[in-house]
Amino acid sequence: MNIWLVLLLGGLITFGMRFSLIYLFGRFEFPETIRKALHYVPPAVLSAIVFPELFMRDGMLNLSFDNHRLLAGLVAVLVAWFSKNILITIIAGMIALFLLQLFL
Amino acid sequence: MSEQSKQFWAGVRAEIPLLIGGFPFGMIYGALAMNAGLPAAAAQLMSSIVFAGSAQFITTELVRESAPGLVIVLTIAVVNLRHMLYSASLAPYLASLSTRWKALLSYLLTDEAYAPTVIRYEKEGITPYGHWFLLGAGLVLWMDWQISTALGIWLGTAIPESWSLDFALPLTFIAMVVPVLKERPAIAAAVSAGVVALAAYSLPYQLGLIVAAFVGIVVGTVLEGRKSPRGTLPPKGTL
């Protein structure tokens, strides 16, 4: 299969999946349990993305102090919890990572 | 300023940290695609047609290994499965829009556009022009991705890795998700999904992410079902 066809099909499939439930919703009734479950998509998906970014280094679980991203991430969690401010959290996390890389 | 442009620019603003975090990834993708022997036009077009970071990274790897086209297409499908979750999650909020709007917003529905949008909807509910927020976030991310891809194609990975700009992505997700962890089921959903994501890390094609997300969603839903349903108890202090 040539690369252009791969691009086209890959794009169509990706779009199809993004469009699928947005399109179908309202065309049939979603059960109450599913509607409830949808509220847990953001915390579940986002932390499923974030955990490996913090805990895995070079494909391995790394719980040591060498894992600067884990430590900086924990700082960010605390700052997010108390400040509830996105910008402050990101800046705190970046500064924490920078300092850890500098001093540890 | 009209309500539409207010929402649009709010979306753009919310997206800024993700633009910074995503930019090095676009450049790395562009550089890798060149390395893998993709024609520059194909590498750039993939960023606009497929417009999905992790799928594009895996595609360059498969092209380098000369994998059959059908394998690449199926891989893209599996890697992007999580977008169906995003689609389901936003569907109730976009239900009243025209099909044309739904199609446009679906095209722009990446991880990075989904996150600020769903957080916004959870906080503010459906507003008449709320979808302009997603349009703003999605469009500006789209431009960011096209430009960073082009720079990666022409310059290679010009941003030093030691700057750790990519760390802005997980940080932004942390900043968005932690404040919504107000009740126990949501906390349990986040923690269980995170732990399963680590345990299932070695699964190929980002399947670990899907499995983890499902576990988290089920855990949250079951725990919520166990306690009294929302709103049936009178507020504290009235008894």
Features:
heterodimer, A: mainly alpha, 5 helices, B: mainly alpha, 11 helices, 0% strand, disordered C terminus
What does this structure look like?
The complex is a heterodimer of chains A (104) and B (239). Chain A has helices spanning 3-24, 32-38, 41-55, 68-83, 86-103, and strands spanning 56-57, 60-61. Chain A is mainly alpha-helical and 104 residues long. In chain A, a hairpin with a 2-residue loop joins strand 1 and strand 2 (60-61). In chain A, helix 4 (68-83) packs antiparallel against helix 5 (86-103). Chain A is extended and about 55 Å long. The termini of chain A are far apart. Chain B is mainly alpha-helical and 239 residues long. Chain B is built from 11 helices and no strands. Classes of the chains: A mainly alpha (104), B mainly alpha (239). At the A-B interface, helix 1, helix 2, helix 3, helix 4 and helix 5 of A face helix 2, helix 3, helix 4, helix 5 and helix 6 of B.
Helix content range of chain A = over 70%
Structural class of chain A: mainly alpha
SSE order of chain B, one letter for each helix or strand: HHHHHHHHHHH
Q: Write down the secondary-structure element order of chain A.
A: HHHEEHH
Largest sheet properties of chain A: 2 strands, antiparallel
Query: What's the rounded overall pLDDT mean of chain A?
Result: 92
Quaternary state of the chains:
heterodimer
How many strands appear in the DSSP assignment of chain A? Answer: 2
